[in-house]
Please model this.
Amino acid sequence: MASGITREAVLKGMRAALRLQRDLGLDRGEARGQRVDVFGAIYKENVPLLFRKLEPLLGAYLREDGNPGILLTTRRPLGQQRFTAAHELGHHILNHDPHADDDRILRRSPDMARDYMHLPPAEQEADAFASYFLVPDWLIGTLMRRHGWTTHHLQDPGTVYQMALRLGASYRATLYALVRNKVIGAGVRQQLAKAQPAALKRSLVADLSLETTQNIDVWHLTERDEGTVIEAGRDDLFVVKLREDSNAGYLWNFEELEQAGFAILKDGREQVAEGVIGAPTIRHILARAGHATAHGTYTLWERRPWAPNDDPKQWSFDYRPVYTHDAGLFRPFSRQASGAR
Ligand SMILES: [Zn+2]
Model:
Protein backbone atom coordinates (compact mmCIF):
# COMPACT_ATOMS: atom_id res chain seq x y z
CA MET A 1 0.00 0.00 0.00
CA ALA A 2 1.30 3.46 -0.82
CA SER A 3 2.17 5.35 2.32
CA GLY A 4 0.26 8.60 2.55
CA ILE A 5 0.62 10.26 5.88
CA THR A 6 4.15 10.22 7.36
CA ARG A 7 4.93 7.75 10.11
CA GLU A 8 6.10 10.55 12.42
CA ALA A 9 2.77 12.36 12.06
CA VAL A 10 0.75 9.19 12.76
CA LEU A 11 2.79 8.37 15.86
CA LYS A 12 2.61 11.90 17.20
CA GLY A 13 -1.16 12.18 16.64
CA MET A 14 -1.88 8.68 17.93
CA ARG A 15 0.17 9.08 21.10
CA ALA A 16 -1.46 12.42 21.91
CA ALA A 17 -4.94 10.89 21.35
CA LEU A 18 -4.24 7.87 23.57
CA ARG A 19 -2.76 10.10 26.26
CA LEU A 20 -5.81 12.37 26.32
CA GLN A 21 -8.19 9.38 26.42
CA ARG A 22 -6.27 8.07 29.42
CA ASP A 23 -6.18 11.47 31.14
CA LEU A 24 -9.92 11.91 30.73
CA GLY A 25 -10.69 8.30 31.72
CA LEU A 26 -12.37 7.58 28.38
CA ASP A 27 -10.70 4.18 28.07
CA ARG A 28 -11.94 2.92 31.44
CA GLY A 29 -15.14 1.73 33.05
CA GLU A 30 -18.48 2.64 31.56
CA ALA A 31 -16.95 5.13 29.10
CA ARG A 32 -14.96 2.36 27.41
CA GLY A 33 -18.08 0.87 25.86
CA GLN A 34 -19.49 4.17 24.60
CA ARG A 35 -18.76 6.51 21.74
CA VAL A 36 -15.99 8.97 22.62
CA ASP A 37 -17.43 12.19 23.99
CA VAL A 38 -15.40 14.59 21.84
CA PHE A 39 -17.38 17.76 22.63
CA GLY A 40 -17.15 16.92 26.35
CA ALA A 41 -13.39 16.43 25.96
CA ILE A 42 -13.02 19.91 24.43
CA TYR A 43 -15.04 21.32 27.33
CA LYS A 44 -12.88 19.51 29.89
CA GLU A 45 -9.76 20.92 28.23
CA ASN A 46 -11.20 24.38 28.93
CA VAL A 47 -11.51 25.29 25.27
CA PRO A 48 -14.71 27.22 24.50
CA LEU A 49 -16.59 25.46 21.69
CA LEU A 50 -18.90 27.57 19.57
CA PHE A 51 -21.34 26.30 16.94
CA ARG A 52 -21.88 28.71 14.08
CA LYS A 53 -23.42 28.62 10.63
CA LEU A 54 -20.11 28.27 8.78
CA GLU A 55 -19.92 27.62 5.06
CA PRO A 56 -17.80 26.33 3.39
CA LEU A 57 -15.65 26.02 6.51
CA LEU A 58 -16.25 23.01 8.73
CA GLY A 59 -14.33 24.25 11.71
CA ALA A 60 -11.44 26.28 13.01
CA TYR A 61 -8.97 26.33 15.83
CA LEU A 62 -8.50 29.84 17.18
CA ARG A 63 -6.10 31.44 19.60
CA GLU A 64 -6.40 35.08 20.49
CA ASP A 65 -4.05 36.62 23.04
CA GLY A 66 -3.19 33.11 24.10
CA ASN A 67 -6.83 32.06 24.62
CA PRO A 68 -7.85 29.01 22.61
CA GLY A 69 -11.26 28.42 21.04
CA ILE A 70 -12.89 26.03 18.60
CA LEU A 71 -15.53 26.91 16.03
CA LEU A 72 -17.70 24.24 14.40
CA THR A 73 -20.27 24.54 11.68
CA THR A 74 -23.90 23.70 12.43
CA ARG A 75 -24.46 22.70 8.81
CA ARG A 76 -23.10 19.16 8.76
CA PRO A 77 -24.28 15.77 10.03
CA LEU A 78 -23.16 14.84 13.53
CA GLY A 79 -20.52 12.31 12.39
CA GLN A 80 -18.77 15.00 10.32
CA GLN A 81 -19.07 17.55 13.14
CA ARG A 82 -17.51 15.07 15.55
CA PHE A 83 -14.58 14.35 13.23
CA THR A 84 -13.98 18.07 12.67
CA ALA A 85 -14.16 18.66 16.43
CA ALA A 86 -11.57 15.93 17.02
CA HIS A 87 -9.33 17.42 14.31
CA GLU A 88 -9.53 20.91 15.89
CA LEU A 89 -8.94 19.42 19.36
CA GLY A 90 -5.84 17.80 17.84
CA HIS A 91 -4.57 21.23 16.75
CA HIS A 92 -5.03 22.44 20.33
CA ILE A 93 -3.49 19.44 22.10
CA LEU A 94 -0.52 19.37 19.72
CA ASN A 95 0.16 23.12 20.17
CA HIS A 96 -0.42 23.95 16.52
CA ASP A 97 -0.97 27.43 15.18
CA PRO A 98 -4.56 28.65 14.64
CA HIS A 99 -6.06 27.09 11.55
CA ALA A 100 -9.33 26.91 9.61
CA ASP A 101 -10.46 23.69 7.91
CA ASP A 102 -12.82 23.05 5.03
CA ASP A 103 -14.25 19.72 3.90
CA ARG A 104 -10.96 18.47 2.53
CA ILE A 105 -10.37 17.06 6.03
CA LEU A 106 -13.24 14.63 5.36
CA ARG A 107 -12.16 13.66 1.87
CA ARG A 108 -8.57 12.68 2.50
CA SER A 109 -7.69 9.20 3.61
CA PRO A 110 -4.48 8.52 5.55
CA ASP A 111 -3.56 5.54 3.40
CA MET A 112 -3.83 7.46 0.13
CA ALA A 113 -0.47 8.99 -0.78
CA ARG A 114 -1.90 11.63 -3.11
CA ASP A 115 -4.15 13.05 -0.37
CA TYR A 116 -1.17 13.75 1.85
CA MET A 117 1.61 14.64 -0.56
CA HIS A 118 1.66 18.41 0.03
CA LEU A 119 -0.09 18.52 3.37
CA PRO A 120 1.75 20.36 6.19
CA PRO A 121 2.81 18.20 9.17
CA ALA A 122 0.30 19.94 11.48
CA GLU A 123 -2.62 18.82 9.28
CA GLN A 124 -1.29 15.28 9.12
CA GLU A 125 -0.90 15.15 12.90
CA ALA A 126 -4.38 16.58 13.52
CA ASP A 127 -5.89 13.98 11.16
CA ALA A 128 -4.09 11.12 12.93
CA PHE A 129 -5.15 12.51 16.29
CA ALA A 130 -8.79 12.74 15.15
CA SER A 131 -8.86 9.20 13.80
CA TYR A 132 -7.38 7.59 16.91
CA PHE A 133 -9.28 9.82 19.32
CA LEU A 134 -12.70 9.32 17.77
CA VAL A 135 -12.40 5.67 16.78
CA PRO A 136 -9.92 4.05 19.16
CA ASP A 137 -8.97 0.42 18.55
CA TRP A 138 -10.48 -0.66 21.89
CA LEU A 139 -13.86 0.75 20.96
CA ILE A 140 -13.95 -1.23 17.71
CA GLY A 141 -13.16 -4.37 19.74
CA THR A 142 -15.74 -3.58 22.42
CA LEU A 143 -18.51 -3.05 19.85
CA MET A 144 -17.63 -6.23 17.97
CA ARG A 145 -17.85 -8.27 21.18
CA ARG A 146 -21.05 -6.64 22.39
CA HIS A 147 -22.90 -7.09 19.13
CA GLY A 148 -21.34 -10.39 18.13
CA TRP A 149 -20.02 -8.81 14.93
CA THR A 150 -17.32 -10.90 13.29
CA THR A 151 -15.03 -9.91 10.43
CA HIS A 152 -17.54 -11.74 8.23
CA HIS A 153 -20.48 -9.61 9.46
CA LEU A 154 -18.47 -6.47 8.87
CA GLN A 155 -18.25 -7.20 5.17
CA ASP A 156 -21.89 -6.19 5.05
CA PRO A 157 -22.37 -2.44 4.52
CA GLY A 158 -25.50 -2.42 6.70
CA THR A 159 -23.53 -3.71 9.68
CA VAL A 160 -20.73 -1.19 9.08
CA TYR A 161 -23.35 1.58 9.01
CA GLN A 162 -24.76 0.43 12.36
CA MET A 163 -21.24 0.35 13.79
CA ALA A 164 -20.62 3.88 12.48
CA LEU A 165 -23.75 5.11 14.29
CA ARG A 166 -22.59 3.64 17.59
CA LEU A 167 -19.07 5.05 17.11
CA GLY A 168 -20.47 8.43 16.19
CA ALA A 169 -18.25 8.46 13.13
CA SER A 170 -19.05 8.71 9.43
CA TYR A 171 -19.40 5.54 7.36
CA ARG A 172 -16.17 6.43 5.60
CA ALA A 173 -14.18 7.05 8.80
CA THR A 174 -15.47 3.72 10.14
CA LEU A 175 -14.22 1.90 7.04
CA TYR A 176 -10.79 3.44 7.50
CA ALA A 177 -10.70 2.41 11.19
CA LEU A 178 -11.72 -1.17 10.29
CA VAL A 179 -8.83 -1.40 7.82
CA ARG A 180 -6.47 0.11 10.39
CA ASN A 181 -7.57 -2.59 12.86
CA LYS A 182 -7.18 -5.30 10.20
CA VAL A 183 -10.84 -6.27 10.61
CA ILE A 184 -11.26 -5.90 6.85
CA GLY A 185 -8.74 -5.75 4.02
CA ALA A 186 -8.25 -3.04 1.43
CA GLY A 187 -10.22 -4.98 -1.21
CA VAL A 188 -13.28 -5.42 1.01
CA ARG A 189 -13.10 -1.78 1.95
CA GLN A 190 -13.16 -0.79 -1.69
CA GLN A 191 -16.33 -2.84 -2.16
CA LEU A 192 -17.92 -1.42 1.00
CA ALA A 193 -17.05 2.15 -0.03
CA LYS A 194 -19.41 1.76 -3.01
CA ALA A 195 -22.45 1.36 -0.74
CA GLN A 196 -24.69 4.41 -0.49
CA PRO A 197 -25.68 5.23 3.12
CA ALA A 198 -29.00 6.55 1.74
CA ALA A 199 -29.82 3.10 0.35
CA LEU A 200 -28.78 1.41 3.59
CA LYS A 201 -31.11 3.68 5.56
CA ARG A 202 -34.03 3.15 3.20
CA SER A 203 -33.63 -0.62 3.27
CA LEU A 204 -34.23 -0.59 7.04
CA VAL A 205 -37.52 1.26 6.69
CA ALA A 206 -38.55 -0.11 3.31
CA ASP A 207 -42.27 0.58 3.71
CA LEU A 208 -41.84 4.15 4.91
CA SER A 209 -41.59 6.77 2.21
CA LEU A 210 -38.83 9.19 3.10
CA GLU A 211 -38.41 12.36 1.08
CA THR A 212 -34.78 12.62 2.03
CA THR A 213 -32.37 10.68 4.23
CA GLN A 214 -29.75 13.38 4.36
CA ASN A 215 -30.11 14.35 8.00
CA ILE A 216 -31.76 11.15 9.14
CA ASP A 217 -30.07 8.12 10.59
CA VAL A 218 -31.86 4.83 11.01
CA TRP A 219 -30.84 2.93 14.13
CA HIS A 220 -31.40 -0.81 14.23
CA LEU A 221 -31.55 -1.56 17.96
CA THR A 222 -31.58 -5.00 19.55
CA GLU A 223 -31.15 -6.52 23.04
CA ARG A 224 -27.41 -6.14 22.58
CA ASP A 225 -27.82 -2.37 22.71
CA GLU A 226 -28.72 -2.57 26.40
CA GLY A 227 -27.17 0.55 27.92
CA THR A 228 -26.05 1.99 24.58
CA VAL A 229 -25.79 5.76 24.29
CA ILE A 230 -28.03 6.81 21.44
CA GLU A 231 -27.00 10.30 20.41
CA ALA A 232 -29.62 10.97 17.79
CA GLY A 233 -30.71 13.73 15.48
CA ARG A 234 -34.23 15.10 15.70
CA ASP A 235 -35.48 13.16 12.71
CA ASP A 236 -33.65 9.89 13.33
CA LEU A 237 -35.66 6.68 13.17
CA PHE A 238 -35.37 3.70 15.48
CA VAL A 239 -36.09 0.17 14.36
CA VAL A 240 -36.25 -1.76 17.64
CA LYS A 241 -36.28 -5.56 17.50
CA LEU A 242 -36.61 -7.45 20.76
CA ARG A 243 -37.21 -11.15 21.43
CA GLU A 244 -40.59 -11.64 22.96
CA ASP A 245 -41.67 -14.78 24.81
CA SER A 246 -45.22 -14.29 23.71
CA ASN A 247 -45.97 -18.01 24.01
CA ALA A 248 -45.33 -17.71 27.73
CA GLY A 249 -47.52 -14.62 27.76
CA TYR A 250 -44.74 -12.01 27.95
CA LEU A 251 -45.26 -8.78 26.05
CA TRP A 252 -43.04 -5.75 25.61
CA ASN A 253 -44.67 -2.50 26.56
CA PHE A 254 -43.74 0.72 24.78
CA GLU A 255 -45.80 3.05 26.91
CA GLU A 256 -42.77 4.66 28.47
CA LEU A 257 -41.48 5.61 25.05
CA GLU A 258 -44.77 7.24 24.12
CA GLN A 259 -44.91 9.08 27.43
CA ALA A 260 -41.41 10.40 26.75
CA GLY A 261 -42.56 11.83 23.44
CA PHE A 262 -41.47 9.11 21.03
CA ALA A 263 -43.96 8.37 18.27
CA ILE A 264 -44.49 4.67 17.54
CA LEU A 265 -44.95 4.57 13.78
CA LYS A 266 -45.25 0.79 13.48
CA ASP A 267 -45.65 -2.17 15.77
CA GLY A 268 -45.53 -5.79 14.71
CA ARG A 269 -44.25 -9.29 15.37
CA GLU A 270 -42.33 -11.82 13.35
CA GLN A 271 -41.63 -15.49 14.00
CA VAL A 272 -38.00 -16.39 14.78
CA ALA A 273 -38.35 -19.86 13.27
CA GLU A 274 -41.23 -20.47 10.93
CA GLY A 275 -43.54 -23.29 12.01
CA VAL A 276 -41.79 -24.07 15.28
CA ILE A 277 -44.33 -24.27 18.07
CA GLY A 278 -43.26 -22.46 21.20
CA ALA A 279 -40.53 -20.48 19.45
CA PRO A 280 -40.20 -16.90 20.64
CA THR A 281 -41.23 -14.10 18.34
CA ILE A 282 -39.45 -10.87 17.53
CA ARG A 283 -41.39 -7.77 18.41
CA HIS A 284 -40.40 -4.94 16.16
CA ILE A 285 -41.38 -1.34 16.32
CA LEU A 286 -40.47 1.72 14.34
CA ALA A 287 -40.18 4.86 16.43
CA ARG A 288 -39.22 8.47 16.05
CA ALA A 289 -38.26 10.89 18.82
CA GLY A 290 -40.33 14.02 19.16
CA HIS A 291 -38.69 17.42 19.26
CA ALA A 292 -39.42 17.65 22.96
CA THR A 293 -38.08 14.22 23.89
CA ALA A 294 -35.63 14.83 26.72
CA HIS A 295 -32.22 13.39 27.39
CA GLY A 296 -32.50 10.42 29.70
CA THR A 297 -32.35 6.71 30.33
CA TYR A 298 -35.49 4.98 29.11
CA THR A 299 -36.41 1.49 30.24
CA LEU A 300 -38.80 -0.84 28.49
CA TRP A 301 -40.39 -3.80 30.26
CA GLU A 302 -41.43 -7.22 29.05
CA ARG A 303 -44.13 -8.50 31.37
CA ARG A 304 -47.07 -10.83 31.58
CA PRO A 305 -50.07 -8.50 31.78
CA TRP A 306 -51.75 -10.64 34.46
CA ALA A 307 -48.60 -11.00 36.58
CA PRO A 308 -46.57 -7.86 35.93
CA ASN A 309 -44.18 -8.39 38.82
CA ASP A 310 -43.37 -11.98 37.97
CA ASP A 311 -39.91 -12.13 36.38
CA PRO A 312 -40.16 -9.10 34.14
CA LYS A 313 -37.36 -8.43 31.66
CA GLN A 314 -36.08 -5.00 30.91
CA TRP A 315 -34.14 -3.19 28.25
CA SER A 316 -32.82 0.35 28.55
CA PHE A 317 -30.99 2.85 26.49
CA ASP A 318 -29.52 6.27 27.12
CA TYR A 319 -31.07 8.77 24.72
CA ARG A 320 -29.31 12.06 23.99
CA PRO A 321 -30.81 14.44 21.50
CA VAL A 322 -28.32 16.23 19.29
CA TYR A 323 -28.14 19.99 19.76
CA THR A 324 -25.17 20.58 17.50
CA HIS A 325 -27.26 21.94 14.64
CA ASP A 326 -28.23 24.99 16.69
CA ALA A 327 -25.83 27.92 16.88
CA GLY A 328 -24.43 28.68 20.31
CA LEU A 329 -21.86 27.88 22.93
CA PHE A 330 -21.52 24.19 23.78
CA ARG A 331 -22.47 23.10 27.29
CA PRO A 332 -22.18 19.50 28.42
CA PHE A 333 -25.27 17.53 29.41
CA SER A 334 -26.24 17.88 33.00
CA ARG A 335 -27.91 14.74 34.31
CA GLN A 336 -29.60 16.62 37.15
CA ALA A 337 -31.26 19.06 34.81
CA SER A 338 -32.54 16.45 32.40
CA GLY A 339 -35.22 13.85 32.24
CA ALA A 340 -32.85 11.14 33.49
CA ARG A 341 -34.43 8.70 35.87
ZN1 LIG B 1 -6.59 21.46 10.37
Notes: The two ends are 50 Å apart (CA to CA). Confidence is low (pLDDT under 50) at residues 335-341. Residues 7-23 form the longest helix (17 residues).
